[in-house]
Design goal:
By secondary structure, this protein is α/β, with parallel strands linked by helices. The chain contains four helices and seven strands. It starts with a strand and ends with a strand.
Length: 145
């Protein structure tokens, strides 16, 4: 994948990485995170939300499909987890367009399951597991998975 690459050696590195990605991609609002189970997608999204001023507890919306958080500016931040969807119609049922095209931040776990629904312009974030706690995090705009 062509793009930027950062390495997290432990969970404490994620705050700086989240800041770097959000500052570097300041004009973007939709972030699609890809990685194996346990790679740290939700943990990185927590770091994104912290940087954006979300004070609520951030947790994966595995069964609800989407969680909405408010930041300290009272702006909505959306967190999706599409791991458990069985049919694309489930995503239509939650009104995904209202979220994806809202202009608010959207962080999407398991985006490969809804790739055809993603907006034309988004940030692809890949997390690869290394030794121990090490993670290689690469990101770029709108490349297919």
């Amino acid at each position: 994948m062509i793009g930027n690459s950062l390495t997290a050696y432990n969970v404490d590195d994620l705050a700086g990485i989240a800041r770097t990605i959000l500052v570097d991609m300041a004009d973007q609002r939709v972030f699609a995170l890809k990685g194996v189970m346990g790679a740290g997608k939700t943990t990185l999204i927590k770091s994104f939300c912290d940087f954006l001023g979300v004070e609520e507890v951030v947790s994966s919306p595995t069964f609800a499909l989407v969680n909405e958080y408010l930041n300290n500016q009272n702006d909505s931040v959306y967190h999706f987890d599409f791991y458990r969807i069985k049919k694309i119609e489930e995503v239509f049922d939650i009104g995904y367009e209202e979220y994806f095209f809202s202009g608010n931040y959207c962080f999407i776990e398991w985006p490969e399951l809804v790739e055809s629904l993603l907006p034309e312009n988004y940030v692809q974030v890949n997390i690869k597991v290394g030794e121990e706690e090490e993670r290689e995090i690469t990101y770029s705009t709108s490349e297919p998975f």
